[in-house]
Amino acid sequence: MTTAVIGLGNIGATVARNLANGGMEIIVADRTLAKAESLAAELGNAVSASAVDDAIGKADVIILAVYLDAIKELIASHQASLAGKVVVDPSNPIAPDGKGGFRKTIPDAQSSGQLITGLLPDGAKLVKAFGTLSAGSLAQAANRTPERAVLFYATDYPEAGRTVAALIEAGGFSPVAIGGVDQSIRIEVGGDLHEMGKVGRLVSAKEAEALVGSETS
Ligand SMILES: NC(=O)c1ccc[n+]([C@@H]2O[C@H](COP(=O)([O-])OP(=O)(O)OC[C@H]3O[C@@H](n4cnc5c(N)ncnc54)[C@H](OP(=O)(O)O)[C@@H]3O)[C@@H](O)[C@H]2O)c1
Fold this sequence. Notes:
It is built from nine helices and ten strands. The chain is of the alpha/beta class and 217 residues long. The protein has one domain (3-214): Rossmann fold. β1 (3-6), α1 and β2 (26-29) form a beta-alpha-beta unit. NADP nicotinamide-adenine-dinucleotide phosphate binds at residues 6-12, 30-31, 52, 65-68, 70, 73-74, 90-92, 131, 134-135.
């Protein structure tokens, strides 16, 4: 199983670092090959740098660690090579509001997970994951002791969910499933299970169990 991380900014570089520290072999890609090569050199032999097209073509699991508009563009231009693959979406549909805060860029009741799943080619399986914490928490809380912190995920495909759960585990977190993609809004920013939402903090697997069952949306 080959995993590619596309987009090596705050979230992508952190996910790549956590996976490499957990011994996973991954491909990294960004808009420029130089950025990917630089991260691969830092992370060692298990990490290789590729152009975006090659990385999407080679990998079975593709983590699209870019903003929603860029995700839409990448999906539109890679329909054939994404068919049948596991696509991981960490996006939060927000943009600066011009007053020092953020505003949601899609209707309040909609999630980017639902929006993205509708854009994927036949057979591609969406897993919403890796976007529930800030990049800082994702870096600092990896392999937290004594109890690991949780990363929630949502998917309509149990096998794809298990694949991503194994990545979450390798990256130093406890994976907790919350249900199908129609539940994505709960783990996007502002959602009741998001660090920047009602829960407002990192949780352990024990706490997560009660939280997941506490609300239906
Ligand atoms: N930052 C957080 O704390 C956080 C938390 C949870 C979820 N998220 C979500 O994670 C995603 C990434 O956020 P981020 O903060 O990591 O963004 P970021 O720091 O801006 O990083 C995005 C990276 O992707 C690259 N990129 C943009 N378009 C690309 C394309 N078409 N092909 C390949 N690479 C491309 C960018 O390159 P350039 O620099 O050249 O544009 C940049 O290196 C977003 O959907 C965001 O909502 C972020």
